Structure of Leucyl/phenylalanyl-tRNA--protein transferase:
Amino acid sequence: MPPVPLTPRPRAFPAVDQADEDGLLAIGGDLLPQTLRLAYTHGIFPWYNPGWPILWWSPDPRCVIDPSRFTPSRSLRKRLKSGVFTITVDKCFTQVMRLCAAPRSYANSTWINEEMIRSYTELHLQGLAHSVEVWNASGELVGGLYGMNLGRLFFGESMFSRETDASKTAFAFLMHLCAGWGFPLVDCQLPNEHLMSLGAFTIPREQFMTVLATERYRESPDWRPVQAINHCTPF
């Protein structure tokens, strides 16, 4: 089935079972904060290359991780015990996004453009989007991640690393938070080797949507206590 065309400021997205075999559901629309929130609420996320129209996805299967079952690797546990990193939450959300958008060794660009940065930053100001930052002993931002929180679910978007295990440390801390808050799943969207090495797995889209239908309406946790302090490893 071809992707469903969207007008700007869409009031609804098509049902996710209309997505094609790759998970592509719709094309067009906009990246306004209210559109992004509507999309996440219905298990849909944007992902497209520079110069392309906006593409909206809901893949089957869906890549997720259960934070209560997350176990750091032996090498990561050793790094965490060393105490070389300090962790903050929501200290510099936009900077994390820009570093996630920076060229990688395997790609000259990412899908994170200025329009996305503006919209997710607005969602951050609304208390819906959050970041985890990792700092080295010199006070340099060397790793981090960002994503969306709706109810008792976190939707991971992207992460970056400038030192060994920095992004894994951010990920491990996110798992620590989400497990403590009783999140049944963290959405990782699409599987890749790195995520699978961290313990991610895939579930049928229908199962993901069932969890989403319940958890999105639960009360979101209060992020302010974890925003207020610097966190040391191990945590």
The first strand starts at residue 4 and ends at 6. The radius of gyration is 17 Å.
